[in-house]
Amino acid sequence: MRTFTFGCFACLALVFTGCTHHSERPVKSSAPDSLYNFGQIITNDTLKHTFYIKNTGDSDLKIDSVSASCDCMTLNWKQGPILPGKTGFINVAVMPKPEEKGKSAKYFIVRTNAANPLTVYKIFFNR
Fold this sequence. Notes:
The protein has one helix spanning 2-17, and strands spanning 29-30, 35-40, 47-55, 63-68, 73-77, 87-94, 103-112, 118-126. By secondary structure, it is mainly beta. The protein has one domain (23-126): Immunoglobulins (Immunoglobulin-like, Sandwich). Strands 1-3-6-5 form a 4-stranded antiparallel beta sheet, with no helix packed on it. It has a 4-stranded mixed beta sheet with strand order 2-8-7-4, with no helix packed on it. The longest helix has 16 residues, at 2-17. The model is unreliable at 1-23 (pLDDT under 50).
């Protein structure tokens, strides 16, 4: 009876732990330039920059979400996976508010399926 009980318990443990062969390859990313400084700006023009995210892993990298720190930012990126060894991009447009004087910093957060899922990108300018 003990053998039967142990056998049932072992089967249930395998079912609930997912007993799968872990052949998934790691998903990794890098952001070679996650900071950009526009320096001194004079006009009220929209500031534009393209940031890059590279897939340094062996599986497809997926951008799950991109969140801006303020409503003054517009973010656009290519939907769909970034293949291993390839680079994706995020186009950023910042419309500084007229009342912003002195040094300013804006940021956005990219969430991916990588082992380290969050990357923070920062933009600086001075007016």
